[in-house]
Write a structure and sequence with these properties.
mainly alpha
């Protein structure tokens, strides 16, 4: 039987607790709590699919990066480093992100496919690009690349 992503998180949490790894255990606890919250949200409780669990993990990792940036701006270097370390723990569970060249290629193909020209066509291009890069690139990166290419840059 294949192990679900949620079960893998639980198994890794158990291993981290046994190994007394505070960083991993606290990060996985918070992530599993976010998954449970998502499962009980709405009218009735349900089990999340691996894809839905991935979205929760990606959201949690993004929160860590944003918090690290905020701590860095606030001059709290230790807190920023902790948030970045937690983000790295979560990155292990996420699919490898597209590098800039791969993302640029996908966006260029989408622009060609849609025949889009100029910044006003951004929505049409994003509709084509988003399903292709779901979970492989953050929305902000994708939007920036689309904007750049539509502006002729």
């Amino acid at each position: 039987m294949t192990t679900t992503l949620k079960q893998r998180l639980k198994d890794d949490l158990t291993a981290a607790i046994k190994g007394r790894d505070e960083l991993i255990s606290s990060t996985l606890r918070l992530t599993l709590t976010a998954i449970t919250k998502e499962e009980v949200a709405g009218k009735e409780a349900r089990e999340l699919s691996d894809d839905e669990v991935l979205k929760v993990i990606a959201r949690e990792a993004k929160k860590r990066r944003e918090a690290a940036d905020a701590f860095e701006l606030g001059g709290r270097k230790e807190a920023a480093e902790r948030e970045l370390a937690e983000g790295e723990v979560l990155d292990v569970y996420l699919p490898k992100q597209l590098d800039d060249a791969e993302l640029a290629g996908i966006v260029a193909a989408a622009i060609e496919e849609s025949g889009a020209e100029g910044p006003k066509a951004m929505g049409a291009v994003m509709k084509i690009v988003n399903p292709k890069v779901a979970g492989l690139a953050e929305g902000g990166r994708v939007a920036a690349e689309v904007r750049k290419q539509l502006a002729g840059g």
